[in-house]
Design goal:
Blueprint: E1 6-9, E2 14-22, E3 28-37, E4 43-45, E5 50-52, H1 57-72, H2 82-88
Length: about 90
């Protein structure tokens, strides 16, 4: 975990960490890492991380919002990212 990571608590003993991952190939990716807190209070990798290229992160975020809206029965935001909102504005 680094200072720039974003941590989303999912329960009192689990969380999702989102941050930079420098892959062995030299690529820089966005990593989504599920973690759990062990009995000593230390955070451990729960299963495995999912990594995406930074350019693909907006599509992933939009997909997560869409699936969440379907589950909750809420309307899907037609412009989930700033770029989508800018494209939807009239000149």
């Amino acid at each position: 975990m680094t200072k720039t990571d974003i941590i989303i608590p999912t329960s009192t003993t689990t969380r999702l960490t989102i941050g930079r991952w420098d892959a062995p190939s030299g690529r820089v990716l966005v990593a989504l890492t599920p973690e759990y807190q062990d009995q000593k209070g230390e955070w451990r990798l729960a299963r495995s991380s999912v990594s995406v290229a930074p350019a693909d992160a907006p599509a992933l975020a939009a997909a997560i919002l869409e699936v969440s809206a379907r589950i909750d029965g809420a309307p899907i935001d037609p412009a989930p990212t700033d770029a989508d909102r800018e494209l939807s504005r009239r000149p």
